[in-house]
Specification:
The complex is a heterotrimer.
Chain A: E1 3-8, H1 9-19, E2 24-27, H2 35-46, E3 50-53, H3 57-69, E4 74-78, H4 80-95, E5 100-106, H5 122-126, E6 137-139, H6 144-161, E7 164-170, H7 171-175, E8 177-182, E9 208-209, H8 219-237, E10 241-244, E11 251-254, H9 257-272, E12 277-282, E13 284-286, H10 290-299, E14 302-307, H11 313-321, E15 327-331, H12 340-358
Parallel strand pairs in A: 2-3, 2-4, 4-5, 5-7, 6-7, 11-12, 11-14, 14-15
Antiparallel strand pairs in A: 1-8, 6-13, 10-12
Helix pairs in contact in A: 1-2, 1-6, 3-4, 9-12, 10-11
Chain B: E1 4-6, H1 16-20, E2 26-28, E3 40-42, H2 53-57, E4 63-66
Antiparallel strand pairs in B: 1-4, 2-3
Chain C: E1 2-4, H1 23-37, E2 43-47, E3 62-65, H2 71-81, E4 86-92, H3 93-99, H4 101-109, E5 115-120, E6 123-124, E7 130-131, H5 159-163, E8 169-176, H6 180-198, E9 203-209, H7 213-216, H8 220-234, E10 238-242
Parallel strand pairs in C: 2-3, 2-4, 4-5, 5-9, 8-9
Antiparallel strand pairs in C: 6-7, 8-10
Helix pairs in contact in C: 1-6, 2-4, 3-4
The chains are: A alpha/beta, B alpha+beta, C alpha/beta.
């Protein structure tokens, strides 16, 4: 057993990064992620690491770009508007196939929005966000303890696949303090040698890290095919999700992150009221655990997607379910969050409607 | 033997060497290299002082200057402008 | 024994630069300095977006290329994580003084121990001759067809003067590559800028006034005259800061 301490989600993410060997952090202040640069500014020097408060999110992500091609485990963090600014760099880093961790502690949007929690950056996170055909591995922790483990895993996956990884958190889980067990870092994969880094060409031929591909004429086509091949491999190897009482569930709630945690409470309340409700919670949002959703759709009568946006995650749920069962939706953006009662109310109305249909009264 | 050597295939025919030759002993060729550019030719190799002006100003690293064994003919012409 | 020849720090690849372009001269000077200082195997170069984006094909050292304007930020990440290496950026006027102004100013003010080679040819070359932040007042470009300065473009941005107000900066010099004397001065300045980094003195930037015959629509001789007569007047040469 590791030591248990009480920390905010944002701070736990930082400590997990430090434990996993992250030694470079560059960031820019934005609420609700300010604990991250604050913690890192103090913690990095203690472990011989580097903290840079950048002049902008653009600069921060490019500092991380430089640290990554130097071979350092590195990260940056921000919240929604700041993540929009980082998209340029993320596209380049994905194109150059470099590892790094990017944390998005989502807030309400669009625009400057507000500083309440949100899940409205789902499309931006899982569909690319920046320009070009690229993917970022996106992780959605649902508890502070899971923020700890997934952050450590994120660095391993980033190195293993040579790809940026994003923690898609939100203002609630970032600000929420919970007891967390500080476990020692152990790599979960065989980490490949970083034979691509730029560290001066002593004793070897010079290397180039670049994203411009002009030659041969079809060089960029080949590069894109290579990237897509890697993404296929990641999809096959790294689709993670949690299922809770789905086996006999008539209604399965689909939710991720903090919303899934609230939904689990709603599922328990529904069971007490005699409605068989389960939960399916993607841990990786990209790659999306489509097979698990397709399987659930075969046994569940209906799926209820709950998210803190006006319907982004639900599109991937529908794609995965592929008509296997009806997919309902409960969600709003702008800082709205569901309570257990709100979800329960929706479940009860869904259950009542299906009972009516079953009786042939409609 | 010439003190200045031109890699005519690297040349893009800009004429910078001709422009800055203090002895005015360079001219662009009538023929073209494999890139389709004219290239410099020495009109009077004996007057070359290996001063290196052409090397200094060549944007394409197409010029090599052998400075060893350069005979001093005329003091006015031997000021080493590269130093 | 040949005494003046191309350095092995440059590869054999023929550059894509236009005839008479100053980039080739600046490349050679940087490469010669790297050779003379014996730092090729410690050097990591950051190429910009713009005409010099392909410089990774021309230098025989570790190279990367960066989003437009971000080289000083990327160099910060490289140098901070590898302080024993020599990190330089090579940037044009659009990259350094327009889209990357913030990165330039803040890397300079943080006193990042890097070397910046800034090629100022007063035009966007790669994209075909649009107005640059350093385009001279009255100078025509494809986006200032009646001459800069009459339609809210503002006067040319003077990078050395601007950065000289920052306490974090170690060394700033503006030179040119339009005469042999200027070329020699540029090499001396570049060498000093690298030596400063080796000595841990902090941010050094050399601004090099350079020819762009193609986008200026001038001959080689006219381009040289333009730098010597027009550009040097708008951008006076000299040392703008030297912490010594």
């Amino acid at each position: 057993m590791g030591e248990k301490i009480l920390l905010k989600g944002n701070e736990v993410m930082c400590e997990a990064a430090v434990q996993a060997g992250c030694r470079f952090f560059a960031g820019y202040p934005i609420t609700p992620q300010n604990e991250v640069p604050e913690y890192m500014s103090k913690r990095m020097p203690q472990v011989g690491g580097i903290f840079v408060q950048a002049e902008s999110e653009l600069a921060a992500i490019n500092m991380v770009f430089g640290a990554s091609l130097s071979g350092a485990r590195c990260m940056t963090s921000s919240s929604s508007p700041g993540i929009s600014l980082k998209q340029e760099g993320i596209s380049y880093i994905a194109a150059a196939e470099l590892p790094c961790l990017i944390a998005n502690i989502q807030r309400g949007g669009p625009g400057l929005g507000n500083i309440r929690a949100s899940q409205a950056d789902y499309f931006q996170a899982v569909k690319g966000g920046g320009h070009g055909d690229y993917r970022v591995i996106v992780l959605a922790p649902a508890s502070v303890q899971e923020i700890y483990t997934l952050t450590m895993n994120a660095f391993d996956w980033a190195d293993y696949y040579r790809n940026p990884v994003m923690i898609l958190g939100d203002g609630i889980s970032g600000q929420m303090a919970e007891p967390v067990e500080i476990l020692p870092y152990e790599p979960i994969v065989d980490l490949p040698a970083k034979d691509y880094i730029l560290d001066g060409c002593a004793g070897r031929k010079p290397r180039v890290v670049k994203t411009l591909v002009l030659r041969p004429t079809d060089g960029l086509v080949t590069h894109n095919e290579h990237l897509q091949g890697k993404y296929k491999r990641i999809e096959a190897e790294l689709s993670l999700c949690e299922e809770y009482e789905t086996a006999d569930a008539e209604i399965v709630i689909a939710a991720y992150g903090i919303t899934a945690r609230i939904a689990k409470g709603a599922a328990r309340l529904a069971r007490k009221k005699g409605i068989a409700v389960g939960l399916i919670r993607p841990i990786t949002l990209w790659p999306f655990p489509s097979d698990a959703f397709a399987a659930v759709a075969k046994t569940a009568g209906q799926i209820l997607t709950v998210e803190m946006s006006h319907g982004q995650f639900v599109e991937d749920v529908k794609l995965a379910v592929n008509g296997g069962c009806p997919v309902r939706f409960l969600g709003k953006g702008g800082g709205w969050y569901p309570t257990e009662d709100t979800i329960l109310e929706k479940i009860e109305s869904m259950a009542a409607a299906s009972a009516t249909i079953a009786k042939g009264e409609l | 033997m010439n003190k200045v050597h031109f890699d005519k295939h690297r040349c893009k025919g800009c004429g910078m060497c001709v422009l800055f030759c203090p002895q005015k002993i360079l001219r662009m060729s009538a023929g073209l290299n494999d890139q389709g550019f004219p290239y410099p030719e020495l009109t009077d190799p004996d007057r070359c002082t290996a001063c290196g002006m052409c090397f200094r100003m060549c944007p394409d690293c197409a010029i090599q200057v052998d400075k060893d064994g350069v005979k001093i003919k005329d003091k006015k012409e031997t000021t080493d402008v590269t130093k | 024994m040949p005494t003046l020849k191309r350095t092995n720090v440059l590869t054999e690849v023929r550059t894509h630069y236009c005839p008479g372009c100053g980039h080739g001269i600046a490349h050679r000077l940087v490469a010669e300095v790297i050779e003379e200082l014996g730092i090729r195997e410690k050097t990591i170069a950051v190429a910009p977006v713009g005409c010099a984006v392909l410089m990774y094909d021309y230098f025989n050292c570790d190279m990367t290329e960066c989003p437009h304007g971000r080289p000083p930020a990327m160099a910060t990440g490289i140098k901070r994580t590898q302080p024993d290496k020599i990190v330089f950026t090579y940037q044009g006027d659009g990259d350094l003084a327009a889209i990357g102004t913030a990165e330039t100013i803040h890397a300079a003010n943080r006193g990042e121990n890097i070397t910046v080679i800034f090629i100022n040819n007063a035009i966007y070359g790669m994209t075909g001759g649009q107005m640059a932040p350093t385009t001279l007042t009255g100078m025509r470009s494809t986006t200032s067809q009646d001459g800069r300065g009459e339609h809210g473009e503002g006067p040319p941005l003077k990078v050395c003067e601007l950065l000289s107000t920052l306490d974090g900066v170690c060394y700033l010099e503006r030179t040119a590559v339009s005469t042999p004397k200027d070329v020699n001065a540029t090499k001396r300045a570049i060498k000093k800028a690298f030596q400063n980094q080796i000595d841990g003195r902090g941010f050094s930037l050399v601004e090099v006034l350079s020819m762009c015959p193609t986008d200026w629509k001038l001959s080689t001789a006219q381009s040289v005259d333009f730098v010597n007569n027009e550009m040097k007047e708008a951008f006076p040469l000299g040392v703008y800061k030297d912490k010594g």
